[in-house]
User: Fold this.
Amino acid sequence: MSESDNIHWAHTTDAGEMKGDELFQDIWQRTESIPGSYTRLNAAKLYEYARKVPMDGTIVEVGVDQGRSASILMRIVELTGTRVFLVDSWESVLVDNYFKVLKLRDEFPEANVAVWHMKSVDAAYKLVDLEPNLNLDMVHVDANHYTPNIENDCLAWLPMLKSGGVALFHDVGSTFDAVTEAVRVYTEGWENLGNWDSLAVRRKP
Assistant:
């Protein structure tokens, strides 16, 4: 399959890809109520790969905003026991969204979730200091979409991803050329698991 053949949009994708199982449908009802641009197809793919992370695994989301995609991750890890780090700088007027995410976290009392109000690169350094031998199972990148921020996110987090781990990047192939280019450059040679409504999924060799 060529790269162009592995691009999927909601209007051309089999309905089953977006419908999901009963658990996903339940999760999506809550996720859909949170503001943001994450589509149902985006959510279905995030759900699919997050569920595969083992109980002793680690997921990082970089760029949380109001918690639309994070709500999916928190519901899953509440069931699986996996831990998740939610990282966002929530700068200036966006700081209100930080408190919204803290309140959202309270909806998932059994989830192993850490919410870090700090810049992406600083958070990566902090995690390395805390756990020098940590290998991440999954990274979801949906933070600042402009140069040099997206490149810095890739440089900070992708080396921490284990072999066979999955990275997901939102807003690829849409209006953010820097994101599309960064994914091309920093995941060269990785397995292309498809672009789903602008959510690029890549597996590290």
